[in-house]
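User: Second chain of the day. Same drill as before.
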Amino acid sequence: MISTVTTTTTTVTTTEVMAYSIIAVIALIALLALKEVLSSETENTNLKSFVKGSNIAIVPLLLVFVAIVAYKVVTVI
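Assistant: Same format as last time:
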């Protein structure tokens, strides 16, 4: 059996990277603000579990934010 493998190369431009990084930073800010606002609600157990579980989305976005800041610092220096 002969199979053909094709290679697809995509190039990502810096404008696309900056657009995605802006979306990631906005999502991080929104999730952090939502977590802060909902953390004051102490009676509802569903909100408590949402606040605890929101770290699943916040931690990767925080790592992306650190990578963006590191990239900007390196490009300036």
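The chain has three helices and no strands.

User: Great, on to the next one.
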